Amino acid sequence: MKRKIILSLVVLFAFFASGAVLAGLYIKNTTATLNHLITLHQIENLRRHLIIAIQTVQSDLYTVDTLLGHRVDVITDNVTTLYQASQRCSGCHHKPEIENRIKDIQSLTLEYQNALSYYMTASANKEKTNKLKLETAAIGNKLLSTTEDMSVQASERLSSMTSAAMDKINQARGVLYITILLTVLFGILVAVNLTLSITRPVGKLVDATRVIASGNLGYAIHIKDKNEFGELALHFNEMSIALKNGYAKLKEEIVEHKKTEEALRESEERYALAARGANDGLWDWDLKNSKIYFSPRWKSMLGYNEEEIGDSPEEWFNRMQPDDRKKLEAKITAHINGHTIHLESEYRISHKDGTYRWMLNRGLAVRDESGKAYRIAGSQTDITDRKMAEEQSLHDAFHDALTGLPNRALFMDRLQHAIKSLHSQLQRHSNYQYAVLFLDLDRFKVINDSLGHIIGDQLLISVGQRLVSCLRPSDTVARLGGDEFAVLLENIKDSKEVLEVTERLLMKLVLPFDIKGHTVVTTASIGVAIGSEIYRGSEEVLRDADIAMYQAKAKGKACFEVFEAHMYASIVERLQLEADLRTALEHKEFRMHYQPIMDLTSNKIIGFEALIRWYHPKRGILYPMEFIPLAEESGLIFPIGEWILMESCRQLRQWQKQYPSNPLLKMSINISSKQFSHPGLVDRITQVLKDTGVDASSLALEITESMIMKNADAASVMLSRLRDMGVHIHIDDFGTGYSSLSYIHRLPVNALKIDRSFISRILDNEEHLEIIKAIISLANNLKFDVIAEGLEVYGQLSKIKSLKCQFGQGFFFSMPMEPEELEMWIKEGMY
Prior knowledge:
Layout: H1 2-62, H2 72-88, H3 96-121, H4 126-213, H5 228-277, E1 281-286, E2 291-294, H6 296-301, H7 314-317, H8 322-336, E3 343-350, E4 356-367, E5 373-382, H9 384-397, H10 408-427, E6 434-441, H11 444-451, H12 453-469, E7 476-481, E8 484-490, H13 495-510, E9 513-515, E10 518-520, E11 524-530, H14 538-555, E12 560-562, H15 565-584, E13 590-599, E14 604-616, E15 620-622, H16 624-634, H17 637-658, E16 666-670, H18 673-677, H19 681-692, E17 699-704, H20 705-710, H21 712-725, E18 728-734, H22 741-744, E19 751-754, H23 756-759, H24 766-781, E20 785-789, H25 794-802, E21 807-809, H26 819-830
Parallel strand pairs: 11-12, 14-16, 16-17, 17-18, 18-19, 19-20, 20-21
Antiparallel strand pairs: 1-2, 1-5, 3-4, 4-5, 6-8, 6-11, 7-8, 9-10, 13-14, 13-21, 14-15
Helix pairs in contact: 1-2, 1-4, 2-3, 3-4, 4-5, 10-14, 11-12, 15-16, 17-19
C-alpha cells in the first residue's frame, strides 16, 4: 500500500509539474514577447523623439534668421539630439530589411548632420548658405519621410505584436487553469482511490473483528490484494484460525479441568466413603514419629474395637504369624530403601478369637526431594476365603469332583515319582517295585442309560470307595474319567503280590451294590502293567496298562490281563490301520459289493444289500467288521457312510434302468449307530436321492435293535421322518439285541431281518426254529416283511419257505459281488 500511495503521489506530482512546466513555457514565451513589446515601445518613443528632433531641426532650419528661428547653438543642440536619437535605434530587434532601413536612416541622419554642419559653418557666404540650407532641408525631409514611414510600420507591428502577446497571455492563463483543474480532478481521483484502497480493507478488518467479537471465531477475510492489506488479511485469517483453535483447545482444557475437578471431588468423596465403609482396612505409618494410624475397619477385621488397638507398629507386627512377620518386615525394609516399586505381601495375622486370618497387604512410600521415605500408607484385605478357595482349587485340580479320588494329573505325578524311585533304587541295588492297574467297568453305559445318570454317578462313587477299602493307605486309587479307574501299587515284593491284589479287587467288585433301593451288579476289566527299568515316563506305563485292559475286555470281560510286548504290537497295528483308513477314501481303496435279495416264492431278485469292502494295498480285502468299528471310534464313519450311500444309489439307478421291473429294484444299506444319531442324516439322504434320481421307496435303511433302544423316542422321530419321505426301514439282526416288543409295534418299520445265527442252526436246533417261527409270526401280525439272511444250503431254504418267510439272501443264491460280476451272474440266467 505504501508503494501505491507513493506511486499515486508521484503520478499526481508529475502531472501537476507537467502542467506547470507547460504553463511556465507559455508564460516565459509571453514574457519575452512583452519584453520585446516594451523594447519596441521604447524604440517607438525614440523614433518619435527622432521625428520630433528632425521636425525641430527642420523647423529651426526653415526659421533661421526669422523671428521664430532659434539661434544656431540651439540648432546645434537639436542636431546633436537628432544624432543621438538615430544612434539609440538599435537593430537587435529588427528584421534584416528593417535593419537596412535603419542603417539608411542613420546614414541619412549622419549625412543630415554633416549637411547641417556645413550649413552652419558656411554662414559667411549667404548664397552658399542658402544652397546648403536647401540641400540640408531636402536631406531632412527625406529623413523625416523615411522615419515617419518606419514609425507607421512600427506602430502597426507593435499593435499586432501586442495583440499576439495578449493571446499568448490568455493561452498561458487557460493552460494554467486547465492544469490546475485537471490536477485537482486527478488529485480527487487519487484521493478517492487511496481512500477506498485504505478504507475498504480497514472496513473489512473492522467487520471481521466485530464478527469475531460476536463469537464467530475462525472468520476469514477475503482480500486478494498483494499489498500490506493482503498480507494483513492473511495474517488476520491465520490469527483467527489460531484463535479458534486456541479457543477450542481452551474449552477442551476447561472441560477437562472441570472434569478433573469433578473427578477429584468425586475421588475425595469416594475416598472418604471408602475410608469409612471400605471392606479393606487402611493404615498410614509416620516413619519419623514411628506411629501408625489404623482405620476402624482395619481393627474390626481382627475383631477389635476402636480403642483396643493403639498406634504403635508393634500392635501390627506382634499379631502376625512369626514366619510371616519376618517376610513382611523384610519387604517393608526393601521398599523403604527403594529396592521395590511398591509393597505387597500376604501374611497370617491373629484374630481376637484366636484364629489366624490371611491378609493381603499393599502399600506405597511417600518420599522427600532426596528420595528418602518419610511416610508409607496402604491397605489390608482379608483373603482368608480366597486362600481357602485356592486350597480347594488346588485340591480340585488334583482330585475327581465326583468321587473325591485323585484325578489323572495327581495319579500321573505320583506314578512319575514311582518311576524315578525305581531307577534310584536300581542304582542302589534295592528291591523297590511298583505296578499300575487300569480298570474299566463292564456294561456301565447300559446301567447308566437304563437306571439314569444319578444311579450311575453313585455307582462310580461306591466303586471308588470299595477300591480304596481293598488297598493299603500307601497305594493310590484314581478316577481317570468316565468309568475308568487306575491303581498305583508301590513297594510291592513281586508280580505275585500284584496278581493277588488284582484278583481281590475283581472279587470285591463282583459283589452287588445297593444304590438308592437298586441292586446293581457290575464287573471290571483290568489291565496290569508292572514297573520296570524300560519305563521313563508315566504315560508309557499307563498306556501299557490300558492296552492290557482292552485285551481283558476282548477276552470276555470280568477278568484281568498283564501287559506283554506283543499287545503293544497289536495296538500299533490298530493305529496304523486307522492311519490307513484316513487315506482310503482319497486313494479310492473302497469298493462296493452287492448281494441279491430274492423273492423266495418267485425266485426273482427284488433288490440288493450294499456291502463295503476295503481293498487294502498291503493287507488285501478287509471286511466291514475289521474296520467299521474303528471308523466309528475315529469319526471317519461319516465320510465313509456318505460315500456308501452315494455310490450304492448311483449303482441302483443304473441297474433300475438296465433291468426295469415292477416294482423297481431296491437297495438295502446298513447305517451305523453314529450315522443314525446324526441330526443331518435325513437331509443328507434327501440330497443323495435328488442327486442320483433314485425314488425314496427304492431305498431301505438297515438298522439294529440296539440302535433303536438307545433312545427309543428319538429313534421313533427319526424313523418317522424317513418313512414320511418314503424310505423303507429294516431292522437288521432281529432277535439278537435288547429290543422291547412294546416299542416295535409303534415304530415305522417295513421289514425284520432274521439274524444268520438263527438260520445257521435251523436244521439242528429246535430252540432256534421256535425263535424264527415267533419272529415270522410277529412280523405277520404287525404286517412287516421278513427277510432271512445267511441261507447257505437248500435245507435252510426249504425250512424257511415252509415257515412262510417271503424273502431271503445268502450264499445259496450268491455271495456279495462287485457290479460287473453281479451283472454276469444275472446274464447267466439267475434273474
